[in-house]
Amino acid sequence: MAFVTALGKRSGALSRSFAHRQLPPVCGDVGHAASAWVGRRWLRARQRVHAPWMERCRRAQLHPQPSCRQLQASTAANTDGMLQQRTPNVWQQRVARAAALMRRLAALSVPFWTEPDVRRSAWLWTLGTLLLAFATTLYAVSLSFVQRFFWNALNAKDVPKYRNFLLVYVSALVLGPPLLTLFEWVKQRTVLLWRRFLTERLLGGYFADKRYYEIGNRIAMGSLGGGGGGAGTAAATPLTLDNVDQRISEDIRSFTDKAMGFGCTAVVAFFDLLLFSVILYRIQSQLFYILVVYATLGTSITLWIGRDLVRRNTQQLRLEADFRYSLVRVRENAESIAFYSGEEQEKAEVIRRFRGAYDNMLGLLGLQRNVQFATTWYRFLIQVVPAVVVSERYFSGQIPLGALSQAFFSYNHVLNDLSLVVHEFVNLSAFAAAVNRLHDFQSALGEPVIPSKAAGGGGDDGAAAGSRILVRIGAATMPSANDVLVLDKLSVYTPNGRRLLVNQLDLLISNGMRVLVAGESGIGKSSTIRAIAGLWKRGSGAVYRRASPEHTLFISQRPYLALGTLRQNLFYPRHGHDLQHVSDETVREVLRKVNLPDLLDRLGGLDVECDFAAILSLGEQQRLAFARLLLQPKRIELAILDESTSGLDVDNERRMYRLLKEMNVTVLSVGNRPTLLQHHERVCRLMRDGTWRVEDPDQALDYVLGQAG
Ligand SMILES: Nc1ncnc2c1ncn2[C@@H]1O[C@H](COP(=O)(O)OP(=O)(O)OP(=O)(O)O)[C@@H](O)[C@H]1O
Prior knowledge:
The chain folds into three domains: 2-87, no CATH class; 198-445, ABC transporter type 1, transmembrane domain (ABC transporter transmembrane region fold), CATH 1.20.1560.10; 462-708, P-loop containing nucleotide triphosphate hydrolases (Rossmann fold, 3-Layer(aba) Sandwich). The chain starts with a helix and ends with a helix. The strands form two sheets. A six-stranded mixed β-sheet has the order 6-7-8-4-9-10, sandwiched between helices. The chain has a four-stranded mixed β-sheet with strand order 1-5-2-3. It is built from 26 helices and ten strands. α11 (309-332) packs across α16 (420-445) and α21 (584-593) packs across α24 (618-631). The chain is of the alpha/beta class. Mean pLDDT is 79; it is low at 1-36, 52-85, 223-239 and 449-465. A hairpin with a 6-residue loop joins β2 (483-493) and β3 (500-510). The longest helix has 49 residues, at 159-207. Bound molecules: adenosine-5'-triphosphate.
């Protein structure tokens, strides 16, 4: 009793000393040894609580220091209490993780069978797959009986019976392959339908509400490589997503493929287990019990050995995608890298990412090896059991040869069915990783665009940083009939809410007017345009735009050139068959107006596909963007130009602005070039502290000349 009390006191003291990271004096007696053991257990338990907490703080960018210090302080104050409150039992944690995984799996899978568009085909194909799965099981059972009677006839030297069963046996062998092939085809067809549904569904969410932009912004803000939250993602934390492209292309493919594969395997195993258990039980009941105990033990040991596989697999998927992305970046920026001669740095970065994937793969391989040791032993060791148990009955004449062969056959089936988790464990772990990544992606598509204040981090002004800019589009919403664009007390923050760029900007642009936004680099000119376009929503105030999106054109400094033909690029974002109805002559005329008269001949026609971003100069790309203005089906009322003539000479710049004037397009430009002043009637200057000033071009001349150096 005294020993127990001493041990209790000592472990409490030790725990506290561990909390302060001081190791205890060397333990010289049993009490010391036991208490050291308690201390070590405590350290591990604390690590389990503390490390995920730190990780969550880091991911959420939630100022980790104070919160984590608070945690440490409370840990030191009441260590034992903490242990009880904070550390759920290991098994509870595992069960919770498994339950979370099942919920994620359901959230990803159920819509395939419930969404009105697809559910009929989904059910038809799934039922077809299940029926065929059942048929293959029945086939295996029938085959076992045919074999049994065949061997019995052989053993009894009953020639007529033997010949009959030989015929039945051959017929069964002929029927088997078409049945198995049909099953595989129907299964793969269902997988493909599911993949199409899930891909289109997630793409729908990705492109809706300009989510791709917001998610891309999050990645650019430094969450690249942070990885999806995985099983432990905090619900209140905005999810960080790496490599969306991989999630949409690779993860969906592997998820649907594996989910259907495992689903079918489980269904087949279930039927198989039912039927062959009965057969086996009737031949030799002990064999059945031995198998149940053996499979339970084997599954538990495999789960324990491979407990880290899901995390490693999730990491591997992310690291592989990061590695691939670094190579894509090199391909896309080959020219700039070549100019800089930046090969060494690029190579080092690509190799660094590859090494990350390599190192993780090493660990993964080690884990897989350990799991494989266990599963192979598991498979091999049990093979001798039926030989020992059933052969005695055969030798004593209690069962015929056919029953012996059927016992072996059924035994192997039941063993395989009960060992599903053991056999598929490595694949199941990879599958769980894909489920986690896809679920994170699906959840991110459903998150609010502006995260809650608690999750997003504070700005200069918490209230404004947490609120949204109101963007209203349509003539009916305009304060006055002649206005095209009105900014009403517009305040714009950076997406993380940390910096106020523009404070309470009031601007009124009426029909046909041209206004230039100027200001030093990094002040927030482009950000103001992003807010007007509705891309950046953090801030306050309102934007009123008379022109609907079809009547508005945004041109950036480096215009976007899409994959596809020159025709598709000239009409972008318009697409579809009606592009063919615009004659080549009309296009040539437009190209002449933007001073690209020979472009068609140079490139070989409108329907030539090539990488236009790589072969056209910046100035040509900018003129091509102005050509779009003339080729849109609806008249462009408002053009928003972000340094979109920066690559042009003065003559070409004048030509572009003349075109806009002839078409009576209202213009909001961004830029600091002095030559721009002559094309605008008003200048809105943004200042460093967020203030602004609207003035005549003459008044702004000195400032703009100063900016131009
Ligand atoms: N996604 C983002 N998240 C956080 N800050 C951003 C983001 N994008 C831009 N910023 C910051 O916002 C500020 C304003 O950027 P903006 O692009 O509007 O500047 P600008 O006035 O157009 O500059 P320039 O004339 O050099 O193009 C910059 O300091 C920039 O670093």
